[in-house]
Design goal:
The protein is built from two helices and four strands. With 78 residues, it is an alpha+beta fold. A hairpin with a 2-residue loop joins strand 2 and strand 3.
Length: 78
């Protein structure tokens, strides 16, 4: 599972570099891999909340979700 999170962090850094965003660092302890209804999602988060959610496609590539899936948002609601 850590390999998937590290793959998500690499994708996150590429996204931030491409868009010229101020870099924020995902936390390994806050980030997690979530499996729901046959879908696998990588959730990158830090102490401020969810930074990005990636869906792992069948071929292993990542797709950045435009919206946070409800089942993922429920995990991070306080």
């Amino acid at each position: 599972m850590n390999a998937l999170i590290e793959q998500g962090i690499r994708a996150w850094k590429c996204y931030e570099n491409y868009h010229g965003c101020v870099p924020t660092q995902p936390s390994m302890s806050e980030s997690q891999v979530v499996r729901e209804h046959g879908d696998l999602h990588i959730v990158l988060a830090n102490c401020n909340g969810i930074l990005a959610v990636y869906r792992v496609r069948d071929n292993g590539t990542l797709y950045r979700c435009k919206r946070v899936p409800q089942h993922v948002a429920n995990l991070y609601d306080n």
